[in-house]
């Protein structure tokens, strides 16, 4: 056996030994017996039945409602004896003990059906009726106690599971305790402890002994009139939950926990599993069974040691069934179907599992190569042929599904594997966006002759809506409407659950019982049962009508669930949505992206002749998918197979169009213009490797200038593209937009591009900065095409419900009105969705199915289906053939920091990046708005704003100045031509007036390009305005004079104080220490909003007051230095490193502030008793429930999105001797100390968002601590001490260089930390590597050590000759920087943070 990690070797040894023991046991075992040492005995007397487990006896009572007793959970032998193993018998004996002691039980264990099935076995052998509640975050008190329904315009209370169980002596099963909110389950505390509960009807449940005592002195009628109800002495509660220490969930409330007796249910053993699989009477060899079990149990045992998710041991039965149907399947094939470790494990964990499989001699390449798949249907049974393998399965009535399926070998193999899994259970297909999951599923459904019931999943989807939705009928009565999932379960169809990764982690487990046991309790009281269990009830004396009256319906054997999900990409910092609970629910199949030859064949079959340029795109796609660079690999989904098909169809439709330059197409496909510069640089280099080069600018300019827009003989022509115009009605004409639009060449070219995509049936996505003309472009396009528009503007409070329908109350009924989206679908209008990046991503994602395949389930139960689908059923809405969606969104990333609509949904749209216009186009446009404005002025404005936009793109400015602001200036000049330019630019730049560093940058650029703004730049606007003799002057002035400087009183409540001269820390006042006022001795910040007085008023202070303020300032300044033990000399030294970079500190702080404000945004919490009315709970409001509101609060700490982990930064500084030695040569040490000060000052106050520490490296060590996590410097003195220690170490340390060692250890250390989402290491070095024989390759490998979780960078701040530049060219693009000018450091850090952390 090849060498293994000691842990894997130990586990293998353990299980090989287990197999030997098992062989010995099986030889001594008596044939036909299952358990030993303990058995279940049941007396045959009909009236006095008793059950005995070991030494525990219990009398059986005759049930009143036999349909509420579980069936077919216990297996009986031919002699009628119950067949259970010893482990189960011991658990059942314990449960019998607790039941006899009248104690409630809590079963703990690993995810899976084992605990629930054990409860069902107990109930079946005890013939006990039960009530079942699947708990989730959406479970409310009314779901447990009593729920109000409207009948005959009156509200009536209906008892729910807990009350029914208490009154009728049933067992209440609470499944998924860890998913319930903390404030829900305590409602059961008194019922658990004293068997008492107050009901909403005013009645009161009391314990049976108290009720019986009262009955001795009062009549039953009196007790009833008092509202007293007797709890049955047979009532019990059995809770099922997971240990929250290991599995994420809400911890048990201590009072609730103390009322239960707990039992840990251990996973199955090797022997139990082997015997269980042998009972299937399978033809699979015993060696294969043992190998399968050994691997499964090794993975299960290693779950704690290697932090692996639990292996779903109960699914091994399905795996063996697959092997029995297809003898060519290997153990490895089955294992990866049950445990998709490539999608759920980190790379290091995957290697360990691969190594274990290799050493178990598992055949990785054993999958059969299926050459042909066909099927035939007869008598509602479909026979699927995989070459010589025949698989039969039930189906519904014949269907006529069609699929655009290209029979590629890889797709065929995945389809064959899916069919084999589908034959034995529910399946989940995992694959990245755009790889063809839905196409594959459609072909599968065609082969098995099944009808799909699609259901789009999203985060806000409640567990109730997943099953049923409460609505009102024509009479205003509340009724329950089945979800597509339940419709499929009732009719034997296939439920397609798209977007499984979007569903909240507490919502999914509600489906466990349906998937594992094929049973489910619906909100309306109906119970759906597996077909054989339903047949057992029929054989037990019921007929179908009786069961229907009791709300018991069968689930046909043909019912299946197919889930579609996207595997989580490593390095995103998000928790893996494939939790152990989810892993246990499905059989999985992974769909990889196509290889280049496969993709080429697919495009040839779909598009006939392939455009020559497509080969370059195919090459680029493979380079991205196969790249080991995390930045490039993360871009691979953008160029998915779906996207390549879109591009190929465009090139086919317009083969000779000069707009179809591949480089230009990729600019829009990737939104390259809006990428962080690091990502953009890496991608453009890869494009060149694929042979994709930029077209010459002269050609592009000529293309722009010769495009015209004409409408002749009802035919629209934009450039070279034509469209026939149809007639529209007056009603439609009223919805056609009309806008002021000038045919700027760049916009005309964009209009032609948009028209081309529109004509080939594409939906459009326009992304750009604010003010670049996105809305005008679309309005102009629709105006030219004479297309009516429906308009939606999204915002942070947009919900899936409001996106699809508008619900209102009318005459006591909830009436659903079509939203703009539904109207556009019905009427064939164009739906324009604006501000798409403002809505939550889970809301935006609901558009994926509508745009991708023309399907969408609305909140009112109706479903939109594609054009051409027979929509005769009343709940179906056929999409009009002219329907289109156009989405407008701001660019992703900083500074907008909206939700990234492009990343989430962009692959189903034709994307277009709307940039600011070229100088020529912008001047053309401005001349139309200001025909009398001199061309020289226009040119200066265009050039100045062009440079400001470039600075914003480079991260030097936070605000991206747009064309909208220039147009506003030109409009003003056109109307008021004599306006002073200094006065005019303030209309745009006064927003920056209170950011002096930013304002200085802006005014320098304006002045550089010749704009006369001296007065504005020198802040002399008041002087300028005084020179103008106006009849009326309005001037803001406090009107109060100063007296003498003083500190002022400290407000113990720290309330804001504006004006006045009493309180210290006020704003806009006088005399006292504060901010924004005048005459005070010094600045004093109490973290309130600042109200700034004008500079003129602040300067208008008597000289003696100024002198007194200065004297007091100096005195208090010296006191402050004493407090932090910093001398005036030390302060002057520190200022040399600090003051020169205050502008850069402010830039970094602005970026961090924007990042922090986005992370602090609160979330909507449902089921509140006050706040905004929740549209989805209007019916609950009608019935009288109180918790029908929602409000924004801090996230629940136990939910998916809560406890967002901070980001992590480790700064590694160079304190080697060469830094001190060559400081006189190029100032490298001083530059580094300035950089360290800049970072410490900028990050002050943001340590919870980006946790940082600083270590040093030199010849004496590679991890010298300077700033530790949690012990950040609090003032100038502490920061000065840190840089002084760095300086001293560099002066006195031993020679040597440990740059590579320091980089490697820093990346490794952060890679092992688990408390952070994303991490970056920034190494500062002086590029003195050659002297110590260190290669750039070694440094690059060290920085890549913990990819993709940790991103490593190096910044060279010193260099002899050109060594730094040489090293930079030898290292991977974007990993190294040369920064000899410290003013560029914030820009570099900004690139790193936006690329790695945002």
UniProtKB/TrEMBL annotation:
**Keyword Calcium among UniProt keywords:** no
Q: What protein is this chain from?
A: von Willebrand factor A domain-containing protein 8
Q: Which SUPFAM superfamilies match?
A: P-loop containing nucleoside triphosphate hydrolases, vWA-like
Entry keyword annotation includes Isomerase: no
- Start and end of every VWFA domain? 1208-1392
- A GO molecular function for this record? ATP binding
Q: Enumerate the InterPro entries for this protein.
A: ATPase_dyneun-rel_AAA, P-loop_NTPase, VWA8, VWF_A, vWFA_dom_sf
- State the protein's purpose: Exhibits ATPase activity in vitro.
Annotated segments matching region Disordered: 1043-1070
């Amino acid at each position: 056996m090849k060498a293994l990690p000691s842990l894997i070797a130990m586990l293998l040894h353990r299980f090989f030994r287990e197999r030997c023991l098992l062989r010995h046991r099986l030889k001594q075992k008596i044939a036909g017996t299952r358990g030993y040492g303990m058995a279940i005995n049941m007396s045959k007397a009909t009236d006095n039945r008793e059950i005995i487990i070991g030494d525990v006896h219990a009398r059986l009572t005759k049930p009143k409602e036999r349909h509420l007793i579980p069936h077919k959970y216990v297996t009986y032998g031919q002699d009628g004896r119950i067949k259970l193993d010893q482990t189960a018998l011991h658990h059942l004996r314990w449960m019998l003990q607790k039941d006899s002691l009248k104690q409630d039980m809590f079963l703990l264990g690993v995810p899976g059906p084992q605990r629930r099935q054990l409860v069902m076995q107990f109930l079946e052998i005890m013939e006990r009726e039960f009530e079942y509640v699947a708990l989730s975050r959406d479970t409310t008190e009314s779901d447990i106690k009593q729920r109000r329904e409207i009948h005959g315009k009156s509200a009536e209370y209906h008892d729910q599971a807990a009350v029914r169980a208490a009154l009728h002596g049933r067992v209440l099963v609470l499944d998924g305790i860890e998913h319930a909110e903390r404030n829900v389950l305590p409602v059961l505390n008194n019922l658990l402890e004293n068997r008492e509960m107050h009901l909403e009807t005013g009645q009161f449940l009391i314990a049976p002994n108290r009720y019986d005592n009262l009955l001795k002195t009062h009549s039953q009628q009196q007790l009833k009139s008092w509202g007293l109800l007797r709890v049955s002495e047979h009532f019990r509660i059995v809770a099922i939950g997971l240990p929250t220490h290991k599995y994420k969930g809400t911890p048990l409330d201590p009072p609730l926990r103390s009322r239960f007796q707990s039992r840990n249910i251990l996973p199955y053993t090797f022997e139990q599993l082997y015997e269980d699989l042998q009972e299937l009477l399978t033809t699979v060899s015993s060696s294969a069974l043992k190998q399968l079990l050994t691997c499964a149990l090794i993975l299960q045992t290693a779950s704690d040691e290697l932090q692996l998710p639990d292996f779903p041991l109960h699914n091994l039965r399905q795996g063996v069934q697959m092997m029995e149907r297809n003898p060519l399947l290997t153990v490895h094939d089955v294992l990866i179907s049950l445990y998709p470790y490539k999608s759920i494990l980190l790379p290091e964990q995957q290697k360990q599992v691969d190594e274990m499989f290799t050493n178990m001699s598992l055949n990785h390449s054993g999958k059969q190569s299926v050459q042909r798949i066909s099927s035939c249907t007869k008598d509602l049974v479909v026979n699927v042929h995989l070459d010589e393998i025949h698989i039969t399965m039930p189906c519904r009535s014949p269907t006529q599904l069609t699929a655009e399926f290209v029979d590629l070998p890889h797709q065929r193999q995945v389809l064959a594997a899916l069919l084999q899994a589908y034959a034995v259970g529910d399946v989940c297909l995992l694959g990245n966006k755009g790889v063809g999951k839905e196409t594959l599923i459609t072909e599968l459904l065609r082969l098995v002759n099944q009808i799909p019931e699609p259901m789009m999943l999203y985060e806000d989807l409640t567990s109730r809506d997943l099953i049923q939705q409460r609505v009102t009928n024509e009479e205003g009565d509340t009724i329950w409407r089945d979800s597509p999932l339940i419709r499929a379960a009732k009719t034997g169809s296939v439920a397609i659950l798209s977007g499984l990764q979007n569903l909240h982690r507490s919502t999914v487990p509600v489906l466990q019982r349906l998937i594992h046991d094929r049973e489910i309790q619906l909100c309306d009281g109906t119970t759906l049962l597996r077909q054989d269990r339903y047949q057992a009830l029929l054989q037990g004396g019921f007929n179908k009508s009786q069961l229907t009256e009791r709300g018991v319906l069968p689930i046909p054997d043909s019912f299946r669930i197919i889930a579609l999900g996207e595997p989580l990409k490593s390095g995103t910092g998000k928790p893996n949505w494939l939790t152990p609970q989810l892993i246990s629910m499905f059989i999985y199949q992974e769909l990889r992206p196509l290889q280049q030859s496969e993709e080429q064949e697919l495009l040839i079959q779909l598009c006939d002749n392939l455009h020559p340029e497509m080969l370059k795109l195919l090459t680029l796609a493979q380079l991205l998918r196969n790249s080991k660079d995390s930045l490039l690999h993360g871009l691979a989904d953008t160029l998915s197979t779906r996207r390549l098909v879109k591009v190929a169809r465009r090139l086919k439709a317009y083969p000779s169009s000069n707009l179809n330059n591949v480089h230009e197409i990729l600019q829009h496909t990737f939104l390259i213009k809006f990428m962080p510069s690091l990502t953009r640089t890496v991608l453009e280099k890869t494009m060149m490797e694929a042979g994709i080069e930029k077209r010459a600018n002269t050609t592009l300019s000529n293309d722009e200038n010769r495009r015209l827009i004409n409408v002749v003989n009802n035919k629209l022509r934009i450039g070279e593209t034509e469209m026939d115009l149809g007639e529209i009605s007056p009603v439609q004409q009223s919805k056609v937009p009309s806008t002021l639009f000038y045919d700027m060449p760049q916009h005309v070219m964009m209009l032609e591009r948009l028209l081309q995509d529109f004509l080939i049936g594409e939906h459009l996505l326009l992304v750009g900065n604010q003010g670049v003309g996105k809305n005008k472009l679309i309005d102009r396009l629709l105006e030219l095409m004479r297309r009516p528009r429906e308009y939606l503007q999204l915002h942070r409070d947009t919900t899936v419900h409001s996106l699809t329908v508008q619900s209102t109350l009318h005459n006591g009924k909830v009436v659903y009105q079509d939203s703009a989206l539904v109207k556009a679908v019905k009427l064939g209008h164009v739906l324009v969705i604006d501000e798409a990046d403002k809505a939550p991503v889970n809301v935006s994602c609901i558009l994926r199915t509508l745009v991708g395949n023309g399907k969408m389930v609305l909140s009112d139960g109706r479903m939109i289906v594609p054009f051409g689908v027979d929509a005769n059923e009343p709940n179906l809405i056929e999409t009009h053939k002219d329907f289109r969606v156009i989405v407008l969104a701001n660019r992703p990333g900083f500074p907008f920091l909206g939700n990234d609509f492009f990343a989430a949904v962009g692959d189903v749209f034709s994307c277009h990046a709307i940039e600011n216009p070229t100088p020529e186009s912008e001047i053309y446009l401005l001349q139309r708005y200001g025909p009398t404005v001199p061309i020289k002025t226009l040119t200066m404005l265009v050039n100045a704003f062009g440079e400001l936009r470039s600075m914003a793109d480079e991260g030097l400015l936070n605000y991206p100045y747009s064309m909208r602001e220039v147009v506003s200036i030109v409009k003003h000049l056109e109307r008021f031509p004599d306006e002073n330019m200094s006065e005019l630019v303030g209309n745009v730049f006064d927003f920056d007036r209170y950011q002096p560093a930013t304002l200085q940058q802006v005014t320098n650029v304006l002045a550089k390009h010749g704009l006369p703004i001296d007065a504005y730049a020198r802040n002399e606007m008041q002087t300028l305005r005084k020179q103008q003799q106006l009849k009326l002057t309005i001037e803001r002035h406090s009107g109060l004079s100063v007296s003498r400087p003083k500190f002022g009183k400290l407000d113990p409540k720290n309330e804001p104080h504006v004006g006045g001269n009493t309180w210290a820390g006020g704003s806009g006042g006088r005399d006292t220490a504060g901010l924004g006022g005048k005459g005070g001795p010094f600045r004093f910040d109490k973290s309130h909003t600042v109200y700034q007085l004008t500079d003129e008023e602040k300067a208008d202070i008597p000289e003696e007051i100024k002198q007194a303020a200065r004297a007091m300032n100096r005195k208090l300044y010296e006191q402050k230095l004493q407090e932090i033990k910093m001398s005036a000399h030390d302060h002057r030294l520190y200022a040399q490193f600090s003051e020169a970079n205050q502008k850069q500190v402010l830039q970094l702080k602005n970026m961090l502030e924007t990042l922090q404000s986005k992370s602090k945004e609160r979330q909507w919490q449902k089921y509140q008793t006050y706040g905004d009315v929740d549209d989805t709970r209007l019916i609950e409001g009608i019935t009288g429930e109180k918790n029908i509101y929602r409000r924004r609060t801090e996230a629940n700490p136990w939910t998916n999105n809560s406890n967002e982990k901070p980001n992590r930064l480790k700064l590694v500084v160079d304190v080697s001797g060469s830094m001190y030695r060559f400081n006189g040569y190029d100032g490298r040490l001083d530059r580094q100390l300035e950089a360290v000060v800049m970072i410490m000052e900028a990050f002050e106050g943001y340590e919870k968002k980006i946790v940082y520490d600083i270590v040093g490296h030199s010849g004496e060590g590679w991890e010298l601590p300077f700033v530790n996590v949690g012990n950040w410097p609090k003032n100038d003195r502490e920061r000065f001490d840190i840089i002084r220690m760095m300086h001293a170490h560099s002066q006195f340390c031993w020679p040597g260089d440990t740059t590579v060692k320091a980089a490697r250890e820093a990346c490794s250390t952060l890679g092992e930390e688990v408390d952070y989402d994303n991490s970056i290491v920034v190494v500062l070095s002086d590029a003195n590597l050659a002297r110590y024989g260190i290669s750039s390759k070694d440094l690059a490998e060290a920085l890549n050590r913990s990819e993709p979780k940790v991103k490593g960078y190096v910044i060279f701040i010193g260099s002899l000759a050109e060594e730094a530049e040489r090293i930079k060219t030898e290292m991977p693009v974007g990993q190294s920087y040369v920064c000899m000018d410290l003013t560029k450091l914030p820009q570099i850090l900004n690139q790193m943070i936006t690329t790695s952390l945002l």
